Amino acid sequence: MAEPFYERLSPLDASFLALESRETHMHVAGVAIFEAGPLARPGGGIDIATLRSFIGSKLQYIPRYRQRLARVPLERSPVWVDDDHFSFDYHVRHTSLPRPGSEEQLKMLAGRICSQQLDRAKPLWELWIVEGLEGDRFATIAKIHHCMIDGMAGVDLMAVLMGFAPTEEIEPAPPWEPRPAPTGAELLVAEAARRTRRALDGARSLGKWREEGLAVTADLQRRLRATAHSLSSGWLKPSSKTPLNPPIGPNRRLDWLTLELDPIKEIKNALGGTVNDALLTIVAGAVRAFLLEREADVRDLDFRAMAPVSVRSRHQRGQMGNQVAMWLVQLPVGEANPVRRLRAIQRETQTLKETEQALGAATIVQVTAGAPTTLVALGARLAATVMRPFNLTVTNVPGPQFPIYLLGSRLLVQYPMVPLWAQHGLGVALFSYDGHVAWGLQADYDGVPDIGRFGEAIRESAEELVTAARRAAAHRPARRRARPKQDATAE
Predict the structure, then answer these.
(1) Pairing state of beta strands 27-35 and 137-145?
(2) Where are the alpha helices (DSSP H) in 355-475?
(3) Do the Cβ atoms of 80 and 178 come closer than 8 Å?
(4) pLDDT, position 352
(5) Which of 80, 129, 197, 274 is most deeply packed, by most CB within 10 A?
(6) Residue 190: CA atoms inside 13 Å, Cβ hemisphere, count?
(7) Per-residue pLDDT tens for 224-261?
(8) Is the pLDDT of residue 1 over 80?
(9) CA angle 258, 263, 264 (to 5 degrees)
(10) What pLDDT does 198 receive?
(11) 3-state secondary structure of 282
(12) End-to-end CA gap in the chain
């Protein structure tokens, strides 16, 4: 008989469970649009049976998708166990838009799906297959709890489900047998033994620590410096209150847009910095325009974006869970000049890198690893509601710059959606793919009803910055041609 199995959640993964409330849903989402291609069927439908069979064959590579949450008695720490009542049909769902379905109707459907929390008694994901989209297309709407996945892990999952070329092959899937979950008593005993082993391992390592004392001290000092810089960046004081930070409810609106990637690279090439600096500057310009239209005073606004930064190493590719740290980036929304906005963000991100604030933020999360779950939950809620150290989440995930396929159907675009924290009426997520940047916008349904206007402001801000970059490139002095070298014997 198989041994009972469980796996602890990391402190960061557990924090996303602690942050969830009736109003703050902690699932990430994505809307992907595909060419129907060979999956098309007469009448505008698609071959659902083949799609289901293909997705089912891939679950063997992502075992977390067949696991549910359990709790350690008394301390209430969350753990993963295999779900012995797993139902594939519950998680992979099929629906249709009224043909010919528009993208506006798809946005409304996705908004309703994102407004509903995942059932914690089951594996924390859903995949909706949506047919009936105009233009011989279909869509998928994926919803996955943030305790399971971060942005880069999401890209790794795309590599599992999608290929570099069209295919009709569906590999055989071995039968799945869930491992038995431990009883409450077994969990208590196993966790007590784990803590004892950790203490003994620490004691045995004292001699090694003495031998490597200088290295340990240097690493500790580095982490302390990074943590101090991270805390001083604004985590311990509230950001300014703005119309984008109302009390939020449980309902959501979605919108999206797509920009070409090459003009964004033009900004980087002409004005310096990185593509991410340019994208953050575009967001800052959009926020400025959006707030000014609401007659907000932006001159001395302390407006901060929380930007997740991947710390996923190469050997962690393909693993579930979160490997991210959090930057706090000051967005200069009071600056009218787009180039000066970019320069300010370049200085900001350079300082964040030099002071290793991603390491500092990751260290803060690690320090909470031994804290009781109830205290972690209370601290997370207080930080999100009372402190509100940032106004907006902006996450940017790079994807493949070539077409990929779900069976024989080409992925046209994927719009990511980031969850909303308390008092955050809007979240911005970006995904670059095949020469384009897809912008996914998720807003509180009542707090930011004009989310479409924010999408227009993004497009206008991008055009303004691209124009400035092209103007700078046109006025840049041409490089002087190098004079031909003279022969050493010439007079």
Answers:
(1) antiparallel
(2) 357-367, 373-382, 451-475
(3) no
(4) 80
(5) 80
(6) 18
(7) 555 555 555 556 788 999 999 999 999 999 999 999 99
(8) no
(9) 75
(10) 65
(11) helix
(12) 93
Q: What is the mean pLDDT of the chain?
A: 84
Which residue type is seen at 342? L
Identify the band that residue 414 occupies on the pLDDT scale cut at 50, 70 and 90. very high
Residue type, 303: F
Sheet of 324-330, strands arranged across: 252-260, 436-444, 426-433, 392-398, 304-310, 324-330
Tokens 């075992």 sit at which residue?
63
- Tokens 């990751």 correspond to 362
Q: Which residues pair with 411 in a beta bridge?
A: 34
**Tokens linked to 338:** 């787009």
Q: If you compute the radius of gyration of the chain from its CA atoms, what whole number of angstroms results? A: 25
Distance CA 20, CA 250 (A): 11
Are the C-beta atoms of residues 133 and 127 closer than 8 Å to each other? no
The rounded distance, in Å, linking the Cα atoms of 154 and 317 is 10
Token pair 């901060």 is at which residue? 304
Using pLDDT thresholds of 50, 70 and 90, give the confidence band for residue 490.
very low
Any idea which residue has 């606004």 for tokens? 301
Tokens at 9, concatenated: 């959640």
Place of tokens 């979240």: 427
Q: Per residue in 151-207, pLDDT tens?
A: 444 455 677 889 999 999 999 989 999 999 999 888 888 887 777 766 665 555 555
**What residues does 433 pair with on adjacent strands?**
436
- If you write DSSP's letter for every residue of 380-444 in order, what string do you get? HHHIIIII---SEEEEEEE--SS--EETTEEEEEEEEEPPPPTT--EEEEEEEETTEEEEEEEEE
Q: To which residue do tokens 């914690």 refer?
A: 120
Nearest to 32 by CA among 287, 406, 320: 406
